[in-house]
Amino acid sequence: MLLKADQILYTIIMLDKKLTNEEKLDLIYQMTEENHDILKSIRRQTYVSNMFRLLYWLVILGAIGGAYYYVRPAIMYVSENSTKFKEVFEQLQGVQSSLPEAQLLNGLIEGLKKSAAGGQ
Question: Can you give the residue ranges of every domain in the chain?
């Protein structure tokens, strides 16, 4: 990749009548080597960038797998004991509905519903 300054310099050198063809060929060869080095560095940077991108995704996927590994026993416990949890919640709802405060609140709510329905 030639920059504008390099292009201008290249044009001046090539148009200079004092250079022999061999000298011009040597200059072209030097520029070609420089271009080759630039292309190699670009290729190397791309390779390193792709390796870091792969490492990035491997770390993310590994973290997800590791998190599942540590959370899995809790998930298994909950899924195996879901019927027990359901029974406990039903018992708690039964205790809640048997409390006198809950009966008083339910009566109050029913009274408000009747008065709202009668007022319409």
Answer: 84-120
